[in-house]
Design brief:
The structure holds two protein chains of two kinds. Chain A is an all-beta fold. Helices cover 0% and strands 57% of the residues of chain A. Chain B contains no helices and nine strands. Chain B has strands at 9-13, 18-23, 31-38, 45-50, 55-56, 61-64, 70-75, 84-92, 108-113. A five-stranded mixed beta sheet of chain B has the order 1-9-8-3-4, with no helix packed on it. A four-stranded antiparallel beta sheet of chain B has the order 2-7-6-5, with no helix packed on it. The chains are: A mainly beta, B mainly beta. The interface between A and B is medium-sized, with 28 and 25 residues.
Chain lengths: 115, 114
């Protein structure tokens, strides 16, 4: 299995509080992603990174920010958590491969509950 | 990226082959077909991918029709541990970070029965 860890694995917080989720990889892969998964919506991309300090928005980025100061760490921050951000969050990594394909490896997920 | 259509759910008997279809009739020539699965409460797992030739690895086989408008993922001897949601994803692979993201649809829930 790819070396990806997420922390915390479970978190309960209150509306309005800041929350930071961490994704750590030991594979030295260039690309890192944050997805959220909700019933009826499947997996949706929040933000992604294509290198240290290089990040961009995904399809559901409102209310989230990210940072990547080191290759191995990708942080997802909810500046002021809302109940609509209750979800399971997955981090993924991939390495660019010449010739085309893009296998993504996923972490175990973080279950976040915002009360 | 091309849209895909998969059945919502399928059943398969343990030990039998599971054949999961995916329709991608609007696929273009430079789009790959990827399959991932997600076992309950776990992160998605890559299974296989292909462009136009059939592919096989230790997990599964991927059969892509000649016109590339549909494909079938085959698990040759399904086990109870193969019960999962299977996602068929079609996408272009280009250089540049944003083009490496995956778009997951609803997938097919495969239930392997004893």
């Amino acid at each position: 299995d790819a070396g990806i860890t997420q922390s915390p694995r479970h978190k309960v917080t209150e509306t309005g509080t800041p929350v930071t989720l961490r994704c750590h990889q030991t594979e030295n892969h260039r690309y890192m992603y944050w997805y959220r998964q909700d019933p009826g919506h499947g997996l949706r991309l929040i933000h992604y990174s294509y290198g240290v300090k290089d990040t961009d928005k995904g399809e559901v980025s409102d209310g989230y920010s990210v940072s990547r100061s080191k290759t191995e760490d990708f942080l997802l921050t909810l500046e002021s958590a809302t109940s609509s951000q209750t979800s399971v969050y997955f981090c993924a990594i991939s390495e660019s491969v010449s010739g085309g394909y893009n296998e993504q490896f996923f972490g175990p997920g973080t279950r976040l509950t915002v009360l | 990226d091309a849209k895909t259509t998969q059945p919502t759910s399928m059943d398969c008997a343990e030990g039998r082959a599971a054949n999961l279809p995916c329709n991608h009739s609007t696929i273009s020539g430079n789009e790959y077909v990827y399959w991932y699965r997600q076992i309950h409460s776990q992160g998605p797992q890559y299974i296989i991918h292909g462009l136009k030739n059939n592919e096989t690895n230790e997990m599964a086989s991927l059969i892509i029709t000649e016109d590339r408008k549909s494909s079938t993922l085959i698990l040759p001897h399904a086990t109870l541990r193969d019960t999962a949601v299977y996602y068929c994803i079609v996408r272009v692979v280009r250089s540049g970070g944003s083009n490496y993201k995956l778009t997951f649809g609803k997938g097919t829930l495969l239930t392997v029965n004893p």
